[in-house]
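Holo prediction — magnesium ion.
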Amino acid sequence: MRLGRIASTSGVAFVKIDDGEVTLPSGQPNPEIRAHEIKDHPFGEPTFTGRSWPLADVRLLAPILASKVICIGKNYADHAAEMGSEAPADPVIFMKPSTTIIGPEAAIVLPPTATEVHYEGELAVVIGRPAKSVSEDKALDVVLGYTCANDVTARDHQSHDVQWTRGKSHDTFCPLGPWIETDLDASDVGIRTALEGAVKQDSRTALLLHDIPKIIAWVSEVMTLLPGDVILTGTPAGVGPIHAGEMVEVTIEGIGTLRNPVANRA
Ligand code: MG
C-alpha cells in the first residue's frame, strides 16, 4: 500500500494512493491513479472518508509528519571510505530537526552561509507504532513502511564544527517522498541518486553495514520512537555538491522517485 499526504483544493489529507504506474509511457500522468482520503491518520488499518482525487490533480507533500528524524552515519563501507574514515563497529546516530522535512518537488534551499552542500540519497524507515527497546527480531513489527530521503548536508559546516548538527539541520535539508510503501521487503533493494539526470550514487540496501532491524533496535534502546518518526539508514558512495537550478532525484526500487529542485534562498 502507498500512503501519502496531499494538498488539494479541499485542504491537506493523508491518502492511500492506487498501485500502478503514475506516469504513462507518453509522459502524461496516468488518470487511473487516484488518491483516497484516509480518515484521521494512516497508522494501523486505515479507514477512508470516501473522497478521492486523481493523483495528477493534487500536490504530494512530505508523506509523514515526524516528531524526530534520526540518521545513521557511515552505514555503507564505500561511503565511509570516501569520507576518509573507518566503517564504525556500532551504528553512529545523529539527528535532523523536523523543520528540515520537505516533500517532493519542493526546493532544497541553499543556506547563504554554506559553500558546499551535498546530496545523500538514503532509504528512510517510517515508524508505525510507539517503540522502546525493541529487539532485532521484533523490529520490523514497528515499521509502517519505507520512503526515499535525501540527507542534504552542508559539508563545509559539518567539517568546520566539531559535530554535525549545523551541517545537517538547515531548513529543507530532509526531502522525503514521494510516498510510503508499506509492503516492501527493504532488505535488498536498489538505491540510486541522480543529479541533472546523471547517476551519481548506485547501490543496494543489502550493503548496509548495520541492517534495518539492528538500526531500529539500536535507536529504540536510546529513545522512544513515535508513530511517524523517520530513520535515515545512511548513504552509499558518490556524494557530491548541488547548485541552484539543478534537480536531484533519489530512486528506490519498489518505492519510486523523490525529485527536488535546488534553489538559492530568496
Ligand atoms: Mg546521511
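READOUT: The pocket of magnesium ion is lined by residues 71, 120, 122, 151, 232, 234-235 (CB under 6 Å).
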